[in-house]
Amino acid sequence: MSSPPEEAKPKPRIGTLRALWPFVMRQRGLFVAWLFALAVASVATLSLPLAVRRMIDQGFSSGTNIDRAFLFLFGVALVLALASAARFYFVSLLGERVVADLRNKLYAHLIGLDAGFHDRNRSGELISRLTADAELLRSVVGSSMSVALRSSVTVVGSLVMLFVTQPRLAAYALVGIPLAVLPIVIGGRRIQKVSRASQDRVADANALAGETLGAVRTVQAHAREPYERGRFGDAIAIAVGTARRRIRSQAWVTAIAITLIFGAITLVLWSGAHDVIAGRMTTGTLGQFVLYALIGGGSVGALAEVWNELQRAAGGMGRINELLQETPHVVAPPSAQTLPQPLRGELRFDDVTFHYPMRPDLPALDAFSLQVNPGETVALVGPSGAGKSTVFSLLLRFHDPQSGAIFVDGVEIRRLDPADLREHIALVPQAPTIFAASARDNIRYGRLEADAAAIEAAARSAEAHEFLSELPKGYDEELGERGARLSGGQQQRVAIARALLKDAPILLLDEATSALDAQSERAVQHALERLMAGRTTLVIAHRLATVLKADRIVVMDRGRIVAEGTHAQLLAQGGLYAELARLQFLD
Predict the structure, then answer these.
(1) How many domains does the chain have?
(2) Which of 17, 45, 144, 481 makes a 20 to 30 Å CA pair with 62?
(3) Domain with 454 in it
(4) Is residue 347 domain-resident?
(5) Is the pLDDT of residue 515 over 60?
(6) Interval 124-135: pLDDT, tens
(7) Residue 54 falls inside a structural domain
(8) Do residues 48 and 171 share a domain?
(9) Which of 268, 265, 272 is nearest to 286 (CA)?
């Protein structure tokens, strides 16, 4: 993902974790159950020193009621064990559900963002946000939040009980708390910055791995495995180096805090021991005080570690919030119009100018105007970069033009819900997308409610039925990631079957037969001709057969229409089309 310079990035704040609260409130039952179990466990924890004092003073000292004293101690321990187990169960399940809801929201948001956003950002880094950063938040809700609240309650309860037990010694112990909190606050600022950098480097490594694995055939074809291993190793080394700085900071903060806390406790115990020797305090009272001091000190130490975890999680939540705050530039208007039914399929580009966000100085389309009549087949030809694919992208509203307008049956497409518009358009790209699912599910993607008969009919029309039937599980065979179990031509025929099943009134064909052998191309071309009958079709053409079948050929160059007509007319005119025909179509 393109990231701003480190100094320009907003510093993560603990307050960003407030964004988790709505997700927590969706699980009110679990939240309340966790609080109840936490309260019982805290009361039991604070009751343990009282039980120990009773055991020492009534059991060891006097010998009376010794059985009852030990039974009381065991009862407190049993309540603590059961309450702690319940607290762990409820808060862990709460963390799972909160993170699941957050991931669902983030994923739904990401796939709803426009193509411009995805052009600017690497999919591998977005996946890192969806996984690694969300995983940090799981530990916050499922563990750190519980530890923080439990430790806070225990610290306050221990302080109260320290003063109840022995006010003078409690005043001494209180001095250690500000000393312990000070390094946490100071060190936390450093940890915030380093945690954000650490997560950025992990995301960089994930993005690199995703990109390389996605192009593994190219890597292997060039025998670049050692080179890619080195690149990934370097990225991991940078991530580990950054993480080492974060860990070192966290370790120093924890060590200093615990040293100060237990230094204060040791001083207090020294003073208490003198009181016991002088007869000013019983042994049981000192034992009770020591336990409260240890419980309180341990809780402050736990808070120090939790604070470090919260710093990391705040960085992750900040990065997730950045994505959630992204707004798509292509959206449905407040009162979206609907396309007329039945749709005739008339298309009109009216003086359209468009620049891609990553190339603002170079127009992809420049004052582009085109009228396509209902049922007409128009072939777009031209050199690479002429703007042919941009015509498809704008018609599908992946982007909106900077000026001009596009109309479908007289309705400007910016007045339509993009989803409604796209339901009326079928696209067959030159590089087909095959999902890691069954052949049946891949074809059904064109029309989710289609039954088995309709799916098979579409496959037969696309000349895909024969090879799909020969798969070990037939149509239920998993095709592998990116259709790895099919040849290029077979993948294309599955994509064509998907478009045939959708049966949309407008077809966009990016040289849909380019990956087929001659025999399959003829069969699929016949199927496409039947499909195109009575439907508006735009074809990005690279082959002579496609050009000859078109009603009209539009020649594009540098985002403009430079000529149009039939194949014979354009050959007679000479110029760019004649040159393209000689170099490309007639090879």
Answers:
(1) 2
(2) 45
(3) 435-503
(4) no
(5) no
(6) 777 777 777 777
(7) yes
(8) yes
(9) 272
